[in-house]
Amino acid sequence: MPSRPRPLVAGNWKMNGLLASLAELVAIRDGVAEGRAGEAEVVICPPATLIALANDVRGTVGIGGQDCHPALAGAHTGDLSAEMLADLGATYVIVGHSERRADHSESDTLVRAKAQAAWRAGLSAIVCLGETREQRDAGLTIELVGRQLQDSVPDGATTTNLVIAYEPVWAIGTGLTPTTRDVAEVHAFIREKLVARFGEAGAAIRVLYGGSVKPDNAAELMAVPNVDGALVGGASLEAKDFLAIAGVYA
Ligand SMILES: O=C[C@H](O)COP(=O)(O)O
Predict the structure, then answer these.
(1) Does ligand 1 lie within 6 Å of residue 130's CB atom?
(2) Which domains are delineated in the chain?
């Protein structure tokens, strides 16, 4: 059996962050250098406007994009290719975040193409999955997550090119979280599917939990079996809170 994967704590700044926000990244970098994230790998996904500057000050903190277009280049006004993100120093890119799926009608097929683009550019894809409140209430969570996992993740996943983030849509930015039992159920299901599809790699591909992860609930959530870290939104905007979350692994 492969050893337990190195935990990953990733911050998604979403559409937040001006030049002055780089001070938070510098504080995160310094905290990580002091060992405050322990064994965890730490990544920040700032808005694309800050990636190049973030890369200049990141230290050992990895930098990721929040989305990419499937194509290498071309007439796609406003979009960014995975190669452009890599060119600026990113090593990760989030694809299929529920806000992209909702705001831009992104399908599993498109998310899969974006993950493939990430791999083409040498990036690791953080593929997001998760049910809405209505889907959970209707008992459709496992079915939905299974379909998203099957259809959004390309063949050929490895421990280095793929991270899964389970993010119940209703938990994002709401202060609500599923019970640890519910998190355990979904993560165990994702693990089972990853192993069935990718074999030994599937046992070690990291599966993050995301959705209202805060300093006061991080330890409980990160202790759930098959939870290999967190994808943090709001609480990643302040170094103090983000380091407190990553500090679970110290
Ligand atoms: O990508 C991050 C997630 O959407 C979680 O956001 P949140 O921590 O603000 O709930």
Answers:
(1) no
(2) 8-38+50-249 (3.20.20.70)
